[in-house]
Design brief:
Number of helices: 3
Radius of gyration: 17 Å
Distance between the termini: 62 Å
Helix content: over 70%
Largest sheet: none
Length: 73
Amino acid sequence: MFNSYVPTFWPVVAIVFFALMIWSVAWEGLALWKAAQQGDKYWFIALLVINTVGILEILYIYVFSKKKEQSGM
C-alpha cells in the first residue's frame, strides 16, 4: 500500500522544496544587500546565519530597515 504513493509523492516534495529554496534565496539576497548598503553589520550576520525561509528577511526589509531610514541614521 505504501509503495503505491511513493511515485506520486516525491515529485511534489521536490517541487515544493525547490520553490521554497528559490523563495528563500531571493529574499535573503535582497535583505543582505540592503543590510550591507545601510551598514547594519549585526543584521547582516543575523540574516546570513539564521534561515527562516524568508520571514526574517521580509521583516527586515519592510519593518526594521524602514525605522532606520525614517530616523535619519
